[in-house]
Amino acid sequence: MTDIRLIEPNEAAVLATIDASARAEPWAAVVFDGLLAKPTTSALVAAEAGQPAAYVLVRSSGLEAEILMIATASAARRRGLGRALFEALVAQLKTAGTKELLLEVAADNDAALALYKAQGCVTVGRRTNYYPRGNGAIDALLLRLVLS
Ligand SMILES: CC(C)(COP(=O)(O)OP(=O)(O)OC[C@H]1O[C@@H](n2cnc3c(N)ncnc32)[C@H](O)[C@@H]1OP(=O)(O)O)[C@@H](O)C(=O)NCCC(=O)NCCS
Q1: CA–CA gap between residue 130 and residue 123 (Å, rounded)
Q2: pLDDT digits (tens, 9 = 90+) for 17-29
Q3: Are 79 and 48 in contact (CB under 8 A)?
Q4: Residue whose CA is closest, atom 35 of ligand 1?
Q5: How far apart are CA 59 and CA 101, in angstroms?
Q6: Count of alpha carbons within 13 Å of 79, Cβ hemisphere only?
Q7: How far, in Å, CA of 45 to CA of 73, rounded?
Q8: Which of 15, 41, 103, 142 lies 20 to 30 Å (CA to CA) from residue 35?
């Protein structure tokens, strides 16, 4: 069973543990700690059988919010956790009166792009050669979801 809850400001280690099992270049707990200390930043965590397995980190400034990261532990992928977190976040933002959700994604990140597009996100911009990749770089796409 999937359980989604708001992360407490002192739970940076929970996010760092998930990140370490989700991404090739994970952020350290100190990075999450700094982000969670900001009043504008919050995170939702999804747990399976009591085990935290995915998170979404968001910065919100009233009318606009931005996903800073969403990640699911490699072993827990394709079980709907990313989708469940995204939907929970959208519901939370709508309740708070947020009008639009923005996010940046590497143009070659097929999994994330499929998730976002399925949720109704639309590409509204492109940043050329934004993310380093080997000897080169890949574009970033800017996506937007209108919430109201
Ligand atoms: C993107 C990510 C968060 C998706 O998490 P997830 O929990 O596996 O996603 P879900 O199981 O909820 O998938 C929801 C939908 O997204 C799409 N999707 C997810 N993974 C996909 C993949 N590997 N290939 C194609 N589509 C994919 C599908 O449409 C999927 O629905 P379906 O399973 O019914 O077909 C996960 O792949 C991840 O952590 N990637 C590394 C971190 C990252 O790149 N984050 C995004 C930064 S912008």
Answers
A1: 16
A2: 999 999 999 999 9
A3: yes
A4: 78
A5: 10
A6: 16
A7: 12
A8: 142
CA distance 43 to 4: 10
pLDDT tens digit string along 54-105?
999 999 998 999 999 999 999 999 999 999 999 999 999 999 999 999 999 9
* Full-model pTM: 0.97
Q: Which domains does the chain have, with CATH numbers?
A: 2-146 (3.40.630.30)
Strand partners, 101: 65, 145
Q: How far is 100 from 33, CA to CA, in rounded Å? A: 26
Which protein residues are within 6 Å of ligand 1, measured from CB? 22-23, 54, 69-72, 77-83, 105, 109-112, 114-115, 118
- Report the atom number in ligand 1 closest to the C-alpha of 72: 39
